[in-house]
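Ligand: EPZ. Inputs:
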Amino acid sequence: MSEKFIVEPSGPLRGTLEICGAKNAVLPVLAAALLTEKPCLLQNVPALSDVDSMSLLIESLGARVAREKNTLTIDAGDVASLKASYELVGKLRASFLIMGPLLARFGRAKVPLPGGCAIGSRPVDLHLKGFAALGAKIDHSHGFVTVSAKRLRGAKIYLDFPSVGATENVMMAAVLAEGQTILENCASEPEIVDLANFLNSIGGKIRGAGTDTIKIDGISSLEQKNITHNIIPDRIEAGTFMVAAAISRGDITLTNVLADHVKPVTAKLKEVNVLVEEGENGVRVYCDPCREIIAADLKTLPYPGFPTDMQAQFMALLSTAQGTSVITETVFENRFMQVGELKRMGAEIKIESRSAIVEGVEILTGTQVAASDLRAGAALVLAALRAEGPTEITGIHHIDRGYVDFDSRLRELGASITRADAE
Ligand code: EPZ
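Predicted complex:
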């Protein structure tokens, strides 16, 4: 049964909230667990439908996955199938990340080409170019791509774009290659560092994660040192609740946040007159009642630039700021899906090529809107907190993919939000 959120105008959100483990860290780590035949224990795992989908996928290959609250144990000792099903991959683009580990450990993998999604065509050419550079044979047929190699050989690979997924997939493949692989112009997101730390804990030899050059010294077999890995906090969930504090003119303290990971969002919030205090284990976001939230220009970039996954949420905030903001999306080709719905709530936004010109308005008004993707959905909820009159948001399964109990945790902070069956 599909569900919707009903959001009433909510006053300033106040309180303390613990941030969950990062969706975009645990998904590649789940794939990486396929590299080893020994069990791995993951802690601080968020209860998300995307995590369930990835777990089902690796179980379909023959691995065993056991969930116990916020921990997941994966045992890939008996992996037998090297082919991922269309149904399972169709649910989750990140499924493509199983290719690197399967190719490295078994010399073969067959995965349906992931389709596009609301935010873009989402090609995987950089993943495949990386595998080919390591000596893999790439075959396409009937919508599946098969990669195979007797043994991968280390290579020097320059990524045309610092793709997060391509960096992760090729790094995982290179762990068991013969010789050294140097990945240049690669992604440096915190989730890459978390994956490299996991790979090193199961015996990989990776240096440079978090910079634009990663060196992987290939080994013939893994000497697993330990089996426990703690997933880093979700910087995008943290950023989303930071914006919730700002748009509601509230005062929220977030714990289990690595302040470094949310620096681009902190800097942008301060630029628009929101106050942010960084502490040991978290951040506090609040507003000075004597200062208006003002406009600011924003351009999304690969880390450590402003994250594309925070663009929609920040657009909701700037829709209620004083002045005109220009938001430029440089990472995905179609990531303004929230604009049409925000305009129906009274926002003044004009799209010109890859930029959105946002004229801040005093009042947004509640209405019926639909979430098209995870972050656009979160942006609509944030806008609804500030809007006059009730807002109904359908398509909230998109939101449940990336936010644990989004409605109940917002309610804990004072939001008037309920979940109901969509008629
Ligand atoms: C990861 O997606 C994240 N997903 C995305 O988060 C995030 O938006 C994105 O990185 C950018 O930070 C996960 O980690 C599971 P990319 P990914 O490869 O790896 C192009 C969310 O909301 N590209 O860095 O797919 C691509 O089309 C999700 O949590 C190629 O051209 O992102 C895009 O324009 C959404 N060829 C750009 O690079 C390729 O082979 C960035 O994509 C690969 C990518």
